[in-house]
């Protein structure tokens, strides 16, 4: 590798980077005495050292004039093997990739941008991390502290710290106006990105002139990644109250929110010991095996026949790890017959969202297992037989309903001027293929996502990632880039619509540059079908949700050297053949699938709940006003 000659400062940085690499970390180098406790360095290196001490050694970056000094430090640390940085082509894309790296692989990373537009783009992309409770560091360049006049690309306003105020709204934020504040900034950041119940992005704003500023750093005083013990109720009083409520009730539904991901065993033990059925959220598919008799599938504004039945008919709600988002609880009116709530959550506000709640705050797995043990000893499920049978009948109805759509033959489409696959049938074929090869599935926003969480049949959490918190178009394709920095990358398939794909096609280049092996499947109906469907359901006519521009996505993707693009054709057989061909490619592959959009109800899976939008608002709000929960 060609590098410019080091100056004295760079040689000191390189020596520290080499010592940390050889020792295996900052704390280990301190213990061995290969780096001193007190060092004189720049804020840029102090930040890299502080993040290394927290276990962060991976960066997604688009460098600009607002990050040149930080970039130089990372160059040296990468040359010495202490950190890894990959350069990206779009700030939103790399924000999503960093989110996916933490969400899918559990690996902490940071996003680096310049000042101004780049930071604004990354900030917008961080909404996905904030909405889904995923901890990621965001490091942006910021205006200089001397106030010598506007810096290029800063917010042009006669006020101080505009970016710091904006970022503080969405997550934790710290403007490093004073370099010596690095210890406090990193302590706050460590808690924000590693919070056990409400993690999210943390924003570090680095003024252009403080990055190269020198300071004395106590490496031993920099905070490490926090090790937090699991919390649960201190005594059994509240648990015993919950057990009594469960034993008395005849009809119980567990609403498994996104917080239940990773607590599969505990959730199953609680469901089986209580005799409750489980309604999933869009982001919690797989926490209970798909075929389990008590799995009623997704419930909510889109929902399912069985999931929404269980929610509407239950007398007792056990809400677990859910923040009661409108799509998951039908804008607050999904539990029409529930008289009381047991809410298991680490966050106090979420645990007390509903009235008549017994809040069990703390670690979901610990609390669920303690409840299950008590319920099993009491045989609390003995009076739930009629309820379970009624729910099983609704699940059979839902299964038959889905089967009809999965087996639907190609339908004639007016845009494609020929018969093409209906979207449920096409998504099911790709989801089955993903299961057969052990691939993870990422779903993009829109109609693909809405149908996708009704279709997937997972048996464990972590096989599907549905970014339903922000529903950020372009998330799924961008998420594939996480594999470039993952220690053990997993083959993943991005399920995306034509609209979402065009929001972030940069993955075509970045995946090749960084040797990502994965697949993008574009379900192309030449429209925003989720919104078209909503317009038709509410007002009987669609408006400005499609266009007349034909795009050859196979040719477009094929123009990027290293990408294999194939047509999925117009039948289930041709689609399976295309998927096999794409999977055999050692790199990024793209499969284009024309899908039906029209009046035939088999073209989608339908909706089974209520939602406070459009001309439905009056009815939903009236129902909410009259509901006691």
Explained architecture:
The protein has 629 residues and is an alpha/beta fold. The protein has three domains: 8-221, Rossmann fold (3-Layer(aba) Sandwich); 237-400, Rossmann fold (3-Layer(aba) Sandwich), CATH 3.40.50.1220; 415-597, Rossmann fold. It is built from 25 helices and 22 strands. The chain has a six-stranded parallel beta sheet, sandwiched between helices. Helix 13 links the parallel strand 12 and strand 13. It is globular, with a radius of gyration of 26 Å. The N and C termini lie far apart (64 Å).
Provide a concise account of the structure shown.
This protein has three domains: 8-221, Rossmann fold (3-Layer(aba) Sandwich), CATH 3.40.50.970; 237-400, Rossmann fold (3-Layer(aba) Sandwich), CATH 3.40.50.1220; 415-597, Rossmann fold. 41% of the residues lie in helices and 17% in strands.
List the helices and strands and how they pair.
Layout: H1 8-23, H2 26-32, E1 38-42, H3 43-53, E2 58-61, H4 68-79, E3 84-87, H5 91-105, E4 110-113, H6 117-125, H7 127-132, E5 136-142, H8 162-170, E6 172-175, H9 182-193, E7 201-207, E8 214-218, H10 237-248, E9 252-256, H11 264-274, E10 277-280, E11 295-298, H12 305-313, E12 316-320, H13 326-329, E13 340-345, H14 348-351, E14 357-361, H15 364-378, H16 385-406, E15 411-413, E16 418-420, H17 423-437, E17 440-443, H18 447-455, E18 464-466, H19 475-479, E19 492-497, H20 498-503, H21 507-513, E20 518-524, H22 529-539, H23 553-558, E21 564-567, H24 572-583, E22 588-594, H25 617-626
Parallel strand pairs: 2-3, 2-4, 4-5, 5-7, 6-7, 9-10, 9-12, 10-11, 12-13, 13-14, 17-18, 17-19, 19-20, 20-22, 21-22
Antiparallel strand pairs: 1-8, 15-16
Helix pairs in contact: 1-2, 5-6, 10-15, 11-15, 12-16, 17-18, 17-24
């Amino acid at each position: 590798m060609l590098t410019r000659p080091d100056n004295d400062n760079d040689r000191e940085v390189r020596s520290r980077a080499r010592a940390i690499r050889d020792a295996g970390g900052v704390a280990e180098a301190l213990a061995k005495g290969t780096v001193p406790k007190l060092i004189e360095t720049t804020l840029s290196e102090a930040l890299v050292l502080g993040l290394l001490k927290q276990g962060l050694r991976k960066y997604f970056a688009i460098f600009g004039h607002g990050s040149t000094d930080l970039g130089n430090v990372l160059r040296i640390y990468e040359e010495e093997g202490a950190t890894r940085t990959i350069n990206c082509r779009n700030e939103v894309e790399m924000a999503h990739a960093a989110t996916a790296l933490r969400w899918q692989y559990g690996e902490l990373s940071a996003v680096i941008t310049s000042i101004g537009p780049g930071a604004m783009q990354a900030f917008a992309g961080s909404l996905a991390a904030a909405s889904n409770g995923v901890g990621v560091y965001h490091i942006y360049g910021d205006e200089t502290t001397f106030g010598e006049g506007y810096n290029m690309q800063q917010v042009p306003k006669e006020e101080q710290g505009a970016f710091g105020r904006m970022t503080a709204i969405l997550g934790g934020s710290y403007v490093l106006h004073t370099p010596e504040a690095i210890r406090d900034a990193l302590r706050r950041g460590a808690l924000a990105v590693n919070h056990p119940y409400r993690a999210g992005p943390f924003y570090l704003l680095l003024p252009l002139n403080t990055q190269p500023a020198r300071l004395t750093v106590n490496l031993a005083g920099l905070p490490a990644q926090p090790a937090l013990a699991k919390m649960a109720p201190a005594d059994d009083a509240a648990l015993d109250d919950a057990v009594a409520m469960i034993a008395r009730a005849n009809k119980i539904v567990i609403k498994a929110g996104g917080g239940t991901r990773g607590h599969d065993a505990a959730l199953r033990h609680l469901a089986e010991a209580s005799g409750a059925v489980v309604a999933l959220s869009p982001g919690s598919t797989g926490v209970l095996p798909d075929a389990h008799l008590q799995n009623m599938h997704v419930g909510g504004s889109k929902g399912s026949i069985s999931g929404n039945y269980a929610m509407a008919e239950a007398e007792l709600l056990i809400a677990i790890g859910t923040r009661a988002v409108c799509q998951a609880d039908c804008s607050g009116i999904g539990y029409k017959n529930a008289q009381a709530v047991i809410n298991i959550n680490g966050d106090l506000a979420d645990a007390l969202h509903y009235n008549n709640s017994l809040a069990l705050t703390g670690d979901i797995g610990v609390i669920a297992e303690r409840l299950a043990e008590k319920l099993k000893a009491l045989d609390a499920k003995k009076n739930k037989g009629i309820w379970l049978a009624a729910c099983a009948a609704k699940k059979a109805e839902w299964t038959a309903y889905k089967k009809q759509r999965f087996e639907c033959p190609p339908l004639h489409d007016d845009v494609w001027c020929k018969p093409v696959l209906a979207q449920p049938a096409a998504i099911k074929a790709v989801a089955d293929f993903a299961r057969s090869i052990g691939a993870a599935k990422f779903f993009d926003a829109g109609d693909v996502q809405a149908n996708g969480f009704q279709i997937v049949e997972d048996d464990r959490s972590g096989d599907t990632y549905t970014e339903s918190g922000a529903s950020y178009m372009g998330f799924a394709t961008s998420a594939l880039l996480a594999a470039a920095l993952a220690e053990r990358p997993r083959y993943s398939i991005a399920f995306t619509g034509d609209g979402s794909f065009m929001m972030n096609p940069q993955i075509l280049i970045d995946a090749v540059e960084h040797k990502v092996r994965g697949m993008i499947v574009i379900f192309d109906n030449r429209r925003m079908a989720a919104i078209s469907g909503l317009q038709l359901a509410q007002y009987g006519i669609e408006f400005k949700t499609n266009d007349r521009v034909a795009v050859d996505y196979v040719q477009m993707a094929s123009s990027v050297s290293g990408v294999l693009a194939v047509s999925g054709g117009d039948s289930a057989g041709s689609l399976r053949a295309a998927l096999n061909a794409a999977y055999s490619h050692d790199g990024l592959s793209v499969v284009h699938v024309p899908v039906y959009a029209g009046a035939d109800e088999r073209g989608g899976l339908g909706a089974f709940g209520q939602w406070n939008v459009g001309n439905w608002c009056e009815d939903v709000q009236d129902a909410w006003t009259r509901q006691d929960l």
